[in-house]
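Customer escalation, tier 2.

The customer says the design service returned an amino acid string that "doesn't look like it belongs to this structure." They asked us to rerun it and document both sides in this ticket. The original structure tokens are below, unchanged.
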């Protein structure tokens, strides 16, 4: 199966972005941007970056950084802020929180189930070492409904047994992991491979 190195993910930490330059370099087709975290936080650059990316003709996605608090309330906070269209890719960022309590499996299940009930589609689940640590070799039938976005900065993708394969693979954070690390218009950034061809990528986005 072909793999496209055509997705980047961004947040307020990424500055001086030129979305037209990102599009014009020809390889990047889609952006996934941090929108919310926990119960209250919103990314202050999300809305303006969304507008600029749409103007450049890039596919757009939003992610929520999960924390150790009510999963349904976090999901509703995310939906209220993003107000997603059918073409907005939705993702739960499920990793250890170094600034407070981390989201647990029960809260993650509540989050993704609420997104599904509200939108009719399962979000993606972004995780790496954290989900492997929590699940081990066991299965989680609720989270298995989500397509899997692997975070692993190494030459080889190792997918938890809960999924058959990865859909997206964040292979670098702009420093660690195999090259390339940068993108014209964005500089050094998180880069992601898609496990498929361009029509499949656009299908995942509902485009």
């Amino acid at each position: 199966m072909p793999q496209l190195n055509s997705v980047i993910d961004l947040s307020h930490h990424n500055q001086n972005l030129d979305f037209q330059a990102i599009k014009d370099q020809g390889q990047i087709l889609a952006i996934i941007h941090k929108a919310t975290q926990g119960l209250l936080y919103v990314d202050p650059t999300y809305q303006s970056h969304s507008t600029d990316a749409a103007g450049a003709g890039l596919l757009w996605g939003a992610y929520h950084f999960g924390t150790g608090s009510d999963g349904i309330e976090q999901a509703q906070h995310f939906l209220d802020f993003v107000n997603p269209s059918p073409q907005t890719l939705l993702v739960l960022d499920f990793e250890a929180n170094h600034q407070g309590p981390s989201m647990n499996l029960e809260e993650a299940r509540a989050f993704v189930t609420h997104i599904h009930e509200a939108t009719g589609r399962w979000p993606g689940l972004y995780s790496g070492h954290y989900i492997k640590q929590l699940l081990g070799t066991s299965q989680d039938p609720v989270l298995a409904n989500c397509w899997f976005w692997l975070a692993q900065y190494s030459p080889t993708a190792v997918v938890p047994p809960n999924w058959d394969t990865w859909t997206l693979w964040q292979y670098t954070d702009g420093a660690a992991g195999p090259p390339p690390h940068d993108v014209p218009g964005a500089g050094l950034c998180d880069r992601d491979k898609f496990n498929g061809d361009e029509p499949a990528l656009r299908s995942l986005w509902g485009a």
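Tier 2 assessment: The sequence is consistent with the input. The radius of gyration is 16 Å. The longest strand covers residues 30-37. Sent an explanation to the customer and offered a walkthrough call.
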